[in-house]
Protein 1
Amino acid sequence: MWNQTRVTQALQLKLPIIQGPFGGGPSSIKLAAAVSNAGGMGSFGAYSFSPDQIKELVADLRAETKHSFAVNLWIPYQPDSESRVTESQYRDAVGRLQPYYDRVGAVAPTYGSLFRSQSFEQQIEALLEAAPPAFSFVFGVPAPEVLRACRERSIVTLGAATNVDEAIALDDAGVDIIVATGSEAGGHRVSFLHHPDESPANSALIPQVTQAVKAPVVVAGGIADGRGIVAALMWGAEGVQVGTAFLACDESNATAEHKAAIRSDRARHTTLTRAFSGRYARGIKNEFLLDMQPHETSLPAFPYQNFLTQPLRQAAAKAGLSDFQSLWAGQNAPLVSHTKATELLNYLAQDTERTLAKLKSL
Ligand SMILES: Cc1cc2nc3c(=O)[nH]c(=O)nc-3n(C[C@H](O)[C@H](O)[C@H](O)COP(=O)(O)O)c2cc1C
């Protein structure tokens, strides 16, 4: 049975389908709970949350679903002396952004405010205290004591890999489920051992990862229908994580312009960019992304560029301007057609059955 795997067993799911987390705003309790209540697993991207917000989030999710859900954090980036933005780099960056701030009526953040990231240690403390059913993470491997504490509290861990080395590192550390993320995926390229450019697409990544690790593998990137799920199973995976298709649903917190862009012909044109956050991420091309292309390699690193563009993105969202928002989307965005999360989940399950039946008749 395609829908009974080590992933469904570990997370007690009816379907091996995970709604991917969306950090920085587009996640919603409504979306995560809808997916969890319908037999998949909802996730919530909480990397920008304070410890108290994380505890509140877990309580709110618990109130909405009795089933498994995941809270997602980003393993901290250690800005070295070269990538820590200097005051003169800050002035250059603001100079580059000023015409865009002016167009949307935004004000540049102060230099000091670029150093206000949440403490990962405190986020983890809060997460362990709240003990959600699952903890998913990107950009690295948590310390052994964190993974041990998760095991002690029966928190299932899911770690993302964009190449075989990262998958092996997660497997060796004892992470429960590996979310192998191909270059098709929407949002940030979550590489941590090699340059994001080096990560292959799923047709190359998944067969190699499933061969190299003991832990069950979930495929993320470009999954939008039963064909994608059957391909994932054939490559040896035991589940899928779907991002863009759930992001476009009514229940998500993505802006109306973002959802409209995913549903438009523009969605055929995604690319990797550092323009919005300072880290490579896949999004639909818009004016700001294209204007920043000549500066791609000189933009400040994450989280500084992220904080620098925040007022621009927020003002653009308020004004309904898609050209200055990060329109994260995966390469299969043109396949997205559903608007309700439960309908999408049911469709993914039924389309998998249809595709399997079709294959049998070949
Ligand atoms: C807007 C957006 C935000 C995302 N934020 C996160 C995040 O904070 N943490 C994470 O693990 N994955 C994040 N992702 C990745 C998704 O959870 C998922 O793995 C990915 O979208 C799957 O590829 P697909 O978009 O082609 O379906 C994000 C994706 C998008 C589109």
Protein 2
Amino acid sequence: MSIEKVDTLVVGAGQAGVAMSEHLSNCGIPHLVLERDRIAERWRTGRWDSLVANGPAWHDRFPGMEFSGIDPDAFAPKERVADYFVDYVKKINAPIRCGVEVTAVQRNTGRPGFRVETSDGVIKANSVVAATGAFQCPVIPSVVPENAEILQMHSNDYRNPGQLPEGAVLVVGAGSSGVQIADEILAAGKRVYLSVGPHDRPPRSYRGRDNVWWLGVLGKWEAAAMEPGAEHVTISVSGARGGHTVDFRRLAAQGMTLVGRTESFKDGVMTFAPDLADNIAQGDANYLSVLDEADAYIARNGLDLPEEPEARNIDPDPQCVTDPILELNLEEVGIASIVWATGFSQDYRWLKVHALDEKGKPKHQRGVSAEPGVYFLGLPWQSRRGSSFIWGVWHDAKHLADHISTQRKYLAYRTSTQRKTDG
Ligand SMILES: Cc1cc2nc3c(=O)[nH]c(=O)nc-3n(C[C@H](O)[C@H](O)[C@H](O)COP(=O)(O)OP(=O)(O)OC[C@H]3O[C@@H](n4cnc5c(N)ncnc54)[C@H](O)[C@@H]3O)c2cc1C
């Protein structure tokens, strides 16, 4: 039986796989993209119903195509983002095979290349790009036992408030997912407790420009590495309801109870760290620092952007911040469900090569792995802050395609004697 051969095999057809295909084609590199579900499936079905893109449509896209039928300053609903990538695949005629899962990638012994096992047979490839995303496996910290009598779900499985049982809800994590989900559940009329850890909360917009624009002109999207100590600081920003700045005081004024970082659970009692006021204060400091940097940028460049002094008004801390709850008996306060918006880990168990460290994390430099011929794409901070976002992955894919192209040229090299012999 003949085995299918491709030069470069790309695993996954989310935005990363689509970008990779575009750049491989531009470099003239024959390739195939395998996707176990459908193109951009995570955008279509893998997130909550009301999710919209966190950046406006003019920004959260690839350079080669605009969103059609949507105001460039609007935030595209998740299905529109998925449709965008389906349209993009048609535009670039990307060779994508859907419904095929890659189950194992092994290096050939004694010769270059890889043996790729899939749900549809074996493929031989010279290079493999793992474009399976940064948000693969939902992580729930082991705080509340699985068999505790309370419904627990990860934000990955949350779809809408109708899924939740009667009673109050504890949302753990106040990054973009947690805060948007908590906001939606509160608006649906439920009592909500939100556990707020360290976070940044940039203004949605300031002086007439969206946060993504400020990140761009201030060079923050291009930052090569996270600031030391900021590894556990999540970013709270929302495109919901036309986009707005995340304001924990507003949520508290609307009836949400804020608590500190969730620490432990025993005999039905959840314990929270006494860090809420600090976390809120540091979030404010981050917010104000963006305004300061923006003002300085405007002054330095003589830009004519409208003043917005009211953006600096910060309301007094609500009672739940000044007099924080450190313990909650969940049953007594009627909490019937917990939504864990606590992030994701990666799963590369199918990649049976020397490209992962002892914790299973990619060993790489800008996506070029420690195993020659194996590449990663879509990792957070792969080359810069923007790497795991729509616009950023496109640039990282270009770097990888250039690398693959260069390696192909080395491998194709023949000495002049060899060239004469080859005829
Ligand atoms: C809640 C949420 C909201 C976000 N909002 C934004 C936003 O507004 N703007 C923005 O720029 N970014 C946003 N992001 C970040 C990022 O853009 C998305 O996570 C995006 O889906 C990542 O694309 P990807 O292609 O890297 O991975 P994914 O979209 O996860 O695609 C990976 C693909 O690989 C496939 N796959 C996995 N394993 C295999 C296998 N073994 N064989 C074959 N196929 C496989 C999967 O089926 C999947 O389709 C958001 C992330 C989350 C979690």
Protein 3
Amino acid sequence: MSDSEGIEKLILSRLSDFVGYSASTSPDTLEGKVDVPLDRVIKLNANENPYGCSPGVLRALAACTDIHVYPDDGQQSLRRLLAGYTGVDAANIVAGPGSNTLIDFIVRLFIGTGDEVINCVPTFDIYRFSTQICGGTLVNVNRDAQFAVDVKAVKNAISSKTKLIFLATPNNPTGNAIPQKDILEIVETDLPVVVDEAYYEFGGETVLPLTASYQNLMVLRSFSKWAGLAGLRVGYGVFTPRIADRLMSIKIPHNVSVVAEIAVRESLADLDYLRDRVNAVIAERERLYEALGKLSLLKPYPSKANFIFCQVLKGSASGLYNVLQRRGILVRYFDTPLLKDSVRISVGKPEHTDALISVLREIEGS
Ligand SMILES: Cc1ncc(COP(=O)(O)O)c(C=O)c1O
């Protein structure tokens, strides 16, 4: 092939104008765009843990001498560790470099060209991303005005081509959880249902024990948020042993690193510390919610996660985002037909809340 245009012609036609996932802005890209030194930027745009990981993780990683050796492809000790945490058997678990990759492997396992995936929008965009890459058809079912899943509409959307239903609880970016009875009603359709519990530790509601009774229920979790390991990339899912086995067979070999396994081990050995930090985030979430509610600029929605979704009541979300960014505070903004002029603010430390509220008050008064 003599030129790049020739190669481009061979790209799968369904991917030639594929729209990728829009990831959060990294402070590294903000040189010259903010009025504060880059190391003072307050990052409230990716739902990371403002307290970081367990100090035991950092100590163990500094002492690790095994990174020249591939990790166990069968994830045996990692799966045993996760089994201890979740109370299911290791054979039910598959780990991945972030729960994103498990979403992707599940879609690869179930979805071929023309198969339908029910997606309760607005929600986490990776369900769309992986479905479209695999040639599946998205069947979007709108949530109601309070962002609750419309169970009746989900059931009405089921067709003979439906192969997968995604439910995020708490939902990103809206922060609300799905009542267990609603999840159960959808699981009782017997179709494969993925319940994404990436923010479980901040809300405390889980359907994980129900995986013992429902073969079609798959539950995903992450170490990115509660355990402060977003940069290391580790998540896991709970499945029937047969589905876990199939996922293990299609996953990329050695995909969870040696250091990720160490980080999981040390995190689980330091649960009291991590739970204490999670409780601090939950307390701060409630304080932030109250403070945001007192502003006339924003309408915050109650949250069971480590972020708060808000409607922008004056001006545009992009305008607010830009002013906050200039002042060194990063948030996520949305302006789509389903999420008009809204922002998602991650819960930070108390000083981050204070800085944010003070800038928002200034904007309000200007
Ligand atoms: C609902 C939801 N699921 C899954 C993920 C992926 O998390 P990770 O790949 O870091 O485990 C995220 C990340 O933001 C999320 O919001």
